[in-house]
Amino acid sequence: MNTTVVTGDQVLTQLIPRITQCMEGLNFTPKLATLMVGDNPSIRSYFRSIKKVAQKYGIEVIELTWDVTDTETVQHTIEQLNSDIDIGGILIGEPLPKGIDRTALVETISPTKDVDCMHPYNLGLLMAGRPRVLPSTVGSVWEILQFIGVPLTGKRAVIIGRSLVVGKPLAMLLLQKGVDATVTVCHSKTEQLTDITREADILIVAAGKPHLIGKEHVKRGTIVIDVGINVVAGKLVGDVKFDEVCQLASYITPVPGGVGKVTTHYLMYNLVKSYEHRR
Ligand SMILES: NC(=O)c1ccc[n+]([C@@H]2O[C@H](COP(=O)([O-])OP(=O)(O)OC[C@H]3O[C@@H](n4cnc5c(N)ncnc54)[C@H](OP(=O)(O)O)[C@@H]3O)[C@@H](O)[C@H]2O)c1
User: Fold this and answer.
1) Atom 5 in ligand 1: which residue has the minimum CA distance?
2) Which atom of ligand 1 approaches the CA of 167 most closely?
3) For residue range 82-100, what is the model confidence (pLDDT) as tens digits?
4) Which of 50, 208, 219, 263 could pair with 140 as two cysteines, CB 3.0-4.6 Å apart?
5) Measured from the CA of 162, which atom of ligand 1 is nearest?
6) Cα of 161 from ligand 1 centre, angstroms
7) Per the omega criterion (within 30 degrees of 0), is the bond before 169 cis?
8) Domains of the chain
9) Predicted TM-score of the model (pTM)
10) Which residue puts its alpha carbon closest to atom 21 of ligand 1?
11) Contact status, residue 100 vs residue 66, Cβ threshold 8 Å
12) Residues enclosing ligand 1, CB less than 6 A?
């Protein structure tokens, strides 16, 4: 099989100029507020990479952290950020510690500053076929599909994972009129997963299960996008057995260096676009 490995760096050659162009239209420094409640090493590491990417664009990151706190305290800060015209986006680090009400926090964010499409209003717009913002991981997968450039109309897309941050919004996007894929969403209770994935023209895996997908799950010529990020024996691995699936896929993304690489940039894209929505 003639397989093309699609790296995040390749995809970024198309996304970065669009972000830079949006930046040129702003005559001020865009600001993103990141909120971390409790001390979570994976959130810390994600926020570190966000800050690094932001610096490249000249975007300022305001880091707000709380050790032990209550929902109301964080909500109060979000309200202040909502009314601060300099702040373009607000991002809450997840998972939140026990006792913190995620729904209350997410719904306090002004939908116009919700740069990761967490707010039900923005998810609703996506559901209604009028997305204003995409969750950054979904945006990243979309950019990868655009980069590959294969028409999606009528194609069978199988998504593994039904989370609110990846699987469900991605399904809504691919189902949208104009994109027109035929979408199947699988989850941990799905029976005969292999039979379903073998039907896929496009297989997007976001299960968070290391090496869940092997060659038995994939038909020849499938586009395979691996969203999974897992740490196994100190190494980052995806949800796909890259070496064996690579022999069957037409296009495949690696982990690391695939979807995740694009996600942080897509967040910056959402941030710079968010100022446009508020004009
Ligand atoms: N690359 C990036 O930029 C990026 C961004 C976000 C997340 N991620 C990664 O993507 C993965 C998914 O993230 P998430 O936040 O969506 O995770 P999540 O909230 O844990 O959702 C995982 C989904 O996978 C399903 N699932 C789990 N095991 C399965 C199995 N054996 N067969 C079929 N489905 C199964 C779950 O089903 P149930 O609903 O039945 O439990 C759930 O719907 C994680 O590895 C995460 O680290 C990567």
Assistant:
1) 137
2) 16
3) 999 999 999 999 999 999 9
4) 263
5) 43
6) 5
7) no
8) 26-112 (3.40.50.10860), 135-261 (3.40.50.720)
9) 0.97
10) 163
11) no
12) 137, 140, 160-163, 165-167, 186-190, 193, 206-209, 212, 227-230, 259-260, 263
